[in-house]
Amino acid sequence: MIQKFILPAMLMLVACGHSFKKAEDAQDAGREFIRAALDGNYEKASFYLYADSTNQLLLNKWKKDWDGMDHEEQKKYRDADILPINIQAVNDSVTTYTYANSYKKDTTTIRVVKMNGNWLVDLKEILVSKR
Fold first, then answer.
1. CA 36 to CA 106: how far, in whole Å?
2. Closest by alpha carbon to 95, among 84, 81, 105?
3. Which of 5, 56, 92, 97 is the most buried (most CB within 10 A)?
4. Is the pLDDT of residue 48 over 70?
5. How many CB atoms lie within 10 A of CB 75?
């Protein structure tokens, strides 16, 4: 009898094993996304991503770049601190988040948008700022 309950309970635990906390605000979403990307945790980064086709392509490119790095460089990114430069609310549902990291000092700007009550990262700002 107990066996009927053990298997479903174990399956439920495995399925829920990768739940991530919903971002409380734009800064939280940006920080969680950036940290996940620096750590090479693209499952978590994807959770905080506005999942349209362009963003998916950009994230897949970042993951491919990460996978191509040697372990020493990956470690340097994992050890890097996020250096926020400017976090600016554009309106009540859009915030720009400009940052660098302590390993690579390159400045990057992402946009964080509120969609259906969730704060999510929109990477297309990167394409706009590189023009």
1. 17
2. 84
3. 97
4. yes
5. 13
Q: What pTM value is reported for the model?
A: 0.83
Measured between alpha carbons, how far apart are the two ends of the chain, in Å?
A: 64
d(CA 36, CA 51): 16
| No. of helices (H) and no. of strands (E), the chain | 6, 4
Amino acid identity, position 53: S
Q: How far is CA 98 from CA 1, 23, 34, 101, 110, in A?
A: 56, 18, 11, 11, 6
What's the token pair of residue 104? Answer: 């690579």
- Does the pLDDT at position 1 exceed 50? no
Q: In the predicted model, what is the mean pLDDT of residues 53-81? A: 96
Helices in the chain by DSSP H: which ranges?
2-15, 26-39, 42-47, 53-67, 71-79, 124-129
pLDDT value at position 105?
A: 87
